[in-house]
Design goal:
Radius of gyration: 21 Å
Shape: elongated
Strand order of the largest sheet: 1-2-3-4-5
Structural class: alpha+beta
Oligomer: single chain
Distance between the termini: 76 Å
Helix content: 25-40%
Number of domains: 1
Number of strands: 5
Strand content: 25-35%
Number of helices: 3
Order of helices and strands: HEEHEHEE
Largest sheet: 5 strands, mixed
Length: about 130
């Protein structure tokens, strides 16, 4: 193989490597969404051999429902686990502590919850507007 062919192969390899690194670093994430998300509270069970349960409380600047759903999609999820995200407007009261189980937060904050996102053990997602409204 000639010197010229080695340089061509090396150049192609470096270009491919540079392209792969750029693609990995430029992936969209929660910071790219317009609603201004800020995590307020988080709780996770200590179970590492079974289903991992994660519950988040997040503040948003505006009710951009599509961004809220997308934010939920970006949150960590473990196979056979359960991830729940509760959304609150940033100028209203919101919980700073969450709990595992049927009642994830104090009742005083439920009326301020504007949305919830859930990803269940099978990876199916649901998004609800005003989940605690009566």
């Amino acid at each position: 193989m000639g010197k010229k062919m080695k340089y061509i192969i090396l150049t192609l390899f470096l270009a491919l490597l540079l392209w792969m690194v750029a693609e990995a670093l430029l992936q969209p994430g929660a910071q790219d969404l317009k609603a201004g998300f800020q995590e307020l509270a988080f709780v996770r069970n200590e179970q590492n051999t079974g289903p991992v349960i994660r519950v988040y409380a997040v503040s948003v600047k505006d009710t951009l429902w599509g961004d809220m759903r997308q934010y939920g999609d970006y949150m960590p999820h473990t196979k056979y686990g359960h991830t729940t995200v509760y959304f609150f407007l940033d100028h209203q009261p919101a919980p700073t502590e969450l709990f595992l189980g049927q009642d994830p937060m104090d009742n005083q904050y439920k009326s301020y919850c504007i949305g919830s996102y859930e990803k269940n053990a099978m990876g199916q997602t649901t998004f609800s507007r005003y989940p605690f409204a009566q």
